[in-house]
Amino acid sequence: MTIRSLSTHHSKKPCNRTEFLASLQEGREAETSGRDYLKTQALVHYAKLASETNQTQVIKVPTL
């Protein structure tokens, strides 16, 4: 399979879609993944909870 960039992004860094397709072709995890997203969401959730309750929160990062 050949991967070509479909974006008009002019940076030398590949766009997210191209990077994702390359990761599939190479059998590796993409630079930005669902794992990263879930960890970020956990951090945001517990930061918001700490702010609302004015208490320190233990961050429970999902394991995948």
Structure keywords:
mainly alpha, 0% strand, elongated, 64 residues, 48% helix, Gfo/Idh/MocA-like oxidoreductase C-terminal domain-containing protein, 2 helices
Q: Care to describe what's here?
A:
- The chain is mainly alpha-helical.
- The chain has a domain at 33-64.
- It contains two helices and no strands.
- It has helices spanning 16-26, 34-53.
- The radius of gyration is 17 Å and the shape is elongated.
- It starts with 15 loop residues before the first helix and ends in an 11-residue tail after the last helix.
Number of strands: 0
β-strand amount: under 5%
Give unreliable regions as ranges. none
For the sheet with most strands, the description reads: none
What proportion of the residues is helical, as a percent range?
A: 40-55%
Structural class: mainly alpha
Which overall shape is indicated by the principal axes computed on the Cα atoms?
Answer: elongated
Radius of gyration: 17 Å
Estimate the mean pLDDT confidence: 79
Termini separation comes to 29 Å
Question: How many helices in DSSP terms?
Answer: 2
What's the SSE pattern?
HH
